[in-house]
Amino acid sequence: QKEVEQDPGPLSVPEGAIVSLNCTYSNSAFQYFMWYRQYSRKGPELLMYTYSSGNKEDGRFTAQVDKSSKYISLFIRDSQPSDSATYLCAMNGGNEKLTFGTGTRLTIIP
Amino acid sequence: DTEVTQTPKHLVMGMTNKKSLKCEQHMGHRAMYWYKQKAKKPPELMFVYSYEKLSINESVPSRFSPECPNSSLLNLHLHALQPEDSALYLCASSQREIGGISGNTIYFGEGSWLTVV
To answer: What is the C-alpha to C-alpha distance for residues A25 and A30, in angstroms, rounded to an integer?
Structure first.
């Protein structure tokens, strides 16, 4: 079993829809949770960062962490074509090693 | 725009060539990383430098040789690569706060696309 599981998609939704992206993990030592957005042929861009359980909101993006279920989510409201990208969840226990999910490829259809 | 700058953006090299990838950050971060990313896969950690010292080598073949001249610069020297080494090479940096609420948020550069022919 992988330490981090993420549905690879692809996921296609119409413009304006709410998008839900999810990851599950098995390592209870993970405390820091990140979502990266990666456009084609570019480096990953840090979108959201959350420490421990709870919610964090930044504009149209909301990150949720449920450590009891070992489950994290990223919600995108009022999705735009510019949100079309691969979304990677990542997490670590506070050291230098980041464990990634496989990434979900998202397409927003105008 | 990312504050981690990588050069060159694209590199084509033969299997007998020697080349280098370069990375620079001006965020005052004390940890720097090299990752390798193949198509449709997540980044894979290669090396970590912490306070200019190599702290993690993920069993990377010796044809890849990292160097950290100072806290802002990171190089990856390439020699006798194989076609299967063709990939996107990503540099990243982080503050390296061990523990604490800030954790260890890692910021990536745009990457260097390497093709080995």
So the answer is: 9
Q: Is A5 exposed, middle or buried (0-12, 13-18, 19+ CB in 10 A)?
A: middle
* Identity of the amino acid at A64: Q
Q: Which two tokens stand for residue A2?
A: 């992988």
**Which DSSP category does B83 fall into?**
G
- What single-letter amino acid sits at B75? N
Helices (H) and strands (E) in chain A, counts: 0, 11
Residues belonging to chain B: 117
* Tokens describing residue B105: 């948020």
CB A49 within 8 A of CB A4: no
Residue A19 has pLDDT above 70, yes or no: yes
Write out chain B residues lying below 8 Å of A41, CB-based: 88, 113
Q: Which pLDDT value is given to residue A8? A: 80
Q: What is the pLDDT of residues B41-66, one digit of tens each?
A: 999 999 999 889 999 899 999 999 99
A95 touches chain B (CB under 8 A): yes
